[in-house]
Design a protein that fits this description.
The chain has 140 residues and is of the alpha/beta class. The protein is built from eight helices and five strands; from the N terminus they run βααβααβααβαβα. A five-stranded parallel β-sheet has the order 3-2-1-4-5. Strand 4, helix 7 and strand 5 form a beta-alpha-beta unit. Keywords: Hydrolase, Magnesium, Metal-binding, Nuclease, Toxin, Toxin-antitoxin system.
Length: 140
């Protein structure tokens, strides 16, 4: 089982660096989970890409319609929001990303991300073992 963040899910629908590695995770045989916050996060990212002309509104809407189906389960965010806030304050990093960290830790599974900033923030902390950068996760 792998916990996926929005940086990975966006790569499924956009042609970005490492998109093929991200897409391979979907077919890799692991059950995929994510906090429910992933849905509006990916929607917002696709909206930004649509405004820049990188994806049509129709393709973005189609991607969003199928996004929930990719996941074995979506984890409710409400019960972990306070813990995510406390972690965000400690790491000095956005709460959104900390929601993923807390969810992965609670489940005892790796959080796969393409977010190099998040990887840098957790490097050398107890959270480093929770995060699996895309280049590492795609070699599993």
């Amino acid at each position: 089982m792998l916990l996926i963040d929005a940086s990975i899910a966006c790569k499924w629908y956009l042609d970005e660096a490492d998109s093929e590695q991200a897409r391979a995770i979907v077919g890799g045989g692991d059950d995929l989970v994510a906090p429910d916050i992933i849905l509006p996060e990916v929607a917002n990212a696709l909206w930004r890409c649509n405004r820049r002309g990188e994806i049509t509104a129709e393709n973005a809407a189609g991607a969003l319609k199928g996004l929930e189906m990719v996941f074995h389960s979506l984890i409710p965010t409400a019960p972990i929001t306070v813990a995510a806030f406390e972690l965000a304050a400690s790491l000095r990093h956005p709460v959104y990303d900390c929601v993923y960290l807390i969810a992965a830790r609670n489940l005892g599974i790796p959080m796969v991300t393409a977010d190099s900033r998040l990887c840098a923030v957790v490097r050398g902390t107890a959270w480093q073992g929770v995060v699996a950068p895309l280049d590492v996760a795609s070699r599993r």
